[in-house]
Please model this.
Amino acid sequence: MFGHSSDSVRRSVPGSSNIALLRSTLSYASARTSFFVSDWTPFILVTSYFVFSTTIYMVCTPKAIEILWYVYMLTNMYVSMVTVIEAILSLSVTREARKRVTQIAANDFKPGSRPWPTPDQLLPILDLIIVAYLPNERDIIMERVIYLCTQIVYPVDRIRINCVYNTPISMEPLEAELAGLREKYPQLRVIKVPGSKSKADNLNYFFTLDTGADLIAIFDADHYPHPHNPRWAAERFMADSEVGIVQGRCVVYNSKASWLTRLISIEFDKIYAVSHPGRAIMMEFGLFCGSNGYWRAPLLRQHKMHGHMLTEDIDSALRAVKENVKAVHEVNSISYELAPTEFQGLWKQRLRWAQGWAQASVVHMPMVWNKPAQGTRSFAKRYGIFSLLAVRELSYYLITQYTCLVTSFIILDFPKSPLALARLVFFPYPLSVWFFIIGIACLIGTLVVTWRVRSEFVSVWMMLVFSAFYPFYLVVMGMIGLYGHARQVVGYNSWNPTARK
Model:
């Protein structure tokens, strides 16, 4: 009788069920309102930014407009010149990489010769991790795991393929099929991480396992590493004991899927084969980029991933820079990946990256002026960190402010012909022609270098299209950067995985 007294009292109170329903409704409405405010406040902030900026330019004095225009042109010229210098410096990396390929190929055809510098039995033991969020990658994960087990050219007794995944719901029969692959491929481990909610959770769980590996490689689930990818990375570690991280080159292989993937494929060639290697020479540090990255195992197990960071890979890369870990870029260590085929997918992906970079930049900016805990930090590296964190974040405002300035020109004096529009946008002041020439020269120089190192998925026509659309693409990226800042300001923390097809 006493066990049911509370239920009896509850039923005896008139309207108790209505009160509970009202509380539930109010709680749901409050949660939905909070989500709505969090989701739309960044949009309102960015829209207000563009409207306010354009309006200010419309009422500014001609002299103030001229000064601002020159400021934007000078900063744009600075960024363009740094970019082309990085591109030129990257040529030495490319030449050296091609030289190594030629030597390996030549030795491979000589009877009795050893093509690779390191004998197979002396290669480091490698844990290759493919990280997956199973609901999102359910259509591709089996194919990727089988590919890694059958196509990677590395001594099978010195490599372990680890499929480390999480899923909020049961994904049978897929999970059972994945586990069943271990009977066919002895080098395979399939690990379901309990309670994981992120890539960082998956990796940190794996780092607690005593596998005896010398190196750990991290790949996202959409990647197809080239069969010799691990060997090129391993040889870099063997050649230099001070190297702690080897970052490979990521190539977009679905470049012909849409106009968007064509742009992204060239952008990736520019980033991974030109900008990253060139910056490593110019500014004395390389970067781990989240996927197709190799670490010395003891270093990574100690380093771990910080799950509270929106982009834990960027944070881990910057923490490695802070700790003076030597990171190198191996452009022969190629991995092929998918790019978003639709703008909505790109928008979500780049928004997450933009907010993650903003968050990481705030946390790690003190490296510019602080003393490192161990060793020293050169002026070139401090300058590089400032350029990577501060100038890159500031560039979003410079690009969009110039866009607002040009918009105000058009509103106040709408051009009557394409020639008038070009004159209004590019040649409003006496020195305009020189800024235009320098900017075009830097762009052409960067594109020429990119053309020399382009992947097999990039054509001449795609490069021409990229050149034509690149200024507009920069404006869109600038807007996404602002949106990421706005999300960081309002504390937006929803994670949207990139769709895999």
In short: Residues 1-6, 8-12 have pLDDT under 50 and may be disordered. The longest strand covers residues 326-337.
